[in-house]
């Protein structure tokens, strides 16, 4: 593709080779190929401008910069100068991959909490309606039963555009993406218009360090999504919803439990039946439904309302919504695993005291016979985290089963001793089973009717990191192995 075609939506000045043929758009100097356009991005710890010379030496046909290079750029190389190279990367990537967003039904979700679950719910509803769907978010890029891991919740713009093109090539007709505040701040979602933008909720998070300087900036960055959406849906029970959606030009579809919501939830109650825990919910207003949500917690009633509101802009039947919300799951987020006994077994990513407290408090609401938490702690991490996790589990669980996690370069038993320090501050009972598979087996073999068991810490991870080596380990596979071994 010709350089000027890639730059059609970018404001820039140019010198050097007028309009070379471009083979790829690259922002990582280690991936430079002959004939590419190298875009110099300024990051938190590095500046792509430092690698411009090596990019040229390795065959880049064009440089896209915001600062003047500190070397003489050869005349045969196009030098493109623009104020914002991140925005330029997004706009160029969209053109390079043929503006794939225009070929898909697209939904983008922003908010402090609920993005990952709401994304999974919307995708499952689309699938139940016969619309093959891909997702981009915390778990990575997901489509066709495969997960392609990414570094960020909202990846760099090039990866987003490439992933959408790959989804289309694989037969997808829809894409749902988590729009993080950092992703919006850094223009990773620029260059496309979403069919629907969704706001879930807003709370204090991601402030300080390399993220947002204050709460006002955090809120502002989330609001950026609604400048590039055809339709919008917002949780009107959250007091900042008007501020978040202020830049949206049309009317916003509201959802929530308050009387003025256009999609209103009502008669919600917790479900705990046949080893499956979730929420029952009814809706009125733009959709009148009675449905069961297959993930636990009142907050997932809100996530379900967000999914229903988003899907209401498309031609999707009620049956797909009901079926989709019943079976939608997020890998590693209070994910149920089917077991032979009359108890519930869940896998969750909770790996610090705050997330552990959240999940255990939520599960405690279901009034289990016993709440059992199996967990470890990561090696080469602050010890205080282990103390806090031990204290949280000891306070909120009926039984803690302490085991290994990613021990890295520490001894597992040393980590367990630190966890026990936190447990000692409580009256909680605990047992120590150092090997994780043995610990899972202990939980399953000692489960009583009505117990809820949560395996915390690994979640969607499929490895165990020990002494610098990542060994394959998927808790779902371990559970299946234990069940098979018990049947022999």
Whole-Å distance between the termini?
61 Å
Mean pLDDT rating: 95
The fraction of residues assigned to DSSP E strands is: 15-25%
* Total number of strands: 24
Strand line-up in the sheet with most strands: 9-8-7-10-6-11-12-13-14-15-16
- The CATH homologous superfamily of the largest domain: Mur-like, catalytic domain
Could you say how many structural domains there are in total? 3
Estimated radius of gyration: 25 Å
**Main beta sheet: strand number and arrangement?**
11 strands, mixed
Number of helices: 15
The CATH topology of the largest domain: UDP-N-acetylmuramoyl-L-alanine:D-glutamate ligase
What is shown here, in short?
The strands form four sheets. Strands 9-8-7-10-6-11-12-13-14-15-16 form an eleven-stranded mixed sheet, sandwiched between helices. A six-stranded mixed sheet has the order 17-18-22-19-20-21, with helices on both faces. Helices cover 31% and strands 24% of the residues.
Verbal overview:
The chain is an alpha/beta fold and 488 residues long. It folds into 3 domains: 3-96, MurE/MurF, N-terminal domain (Udp-n-acetylmuramoylalanyl-d-glutamate--2,6- Diaminopimelate Ligase, Chain: A, domain 1, 3-Layer(aba) Sandwich); 100-327, Mur-like, catalytic domain (UDP-N-acetylmuramoyl-L-alanine:D-glutamate ligase), CATH 3.40.1190.10; 335-487, Mur ligase, C-terminal domain (Protein-Tyrosine Phosphatase, Chain A, Alpha-Beta Complex). The chain has 15 helices and 24 strands. It has helices at residues 3-6, 52-57, 85-96, 115-128, 157-169, 181-185, 215-223, 241-244, 299-311, 318-327, 353-364, 383-396, 412-423, 436-445, 475-487, and strands at 13-15, 25-26, 37-39, 62-65, 78-81, 105-110, 133-137, 140-143, 146-148, 174-178, 194-199, 229-235, 253-256, 263-273, 276-285, 289-293, 335-336, 344-348, 371-375, 399-402, 429-432, 452-456, 463-466, 469-472. An 11-stranded mixed β-sheet has the order 9-8-7-10-6-11-12-13-14-15-16, sandwiched between helices.
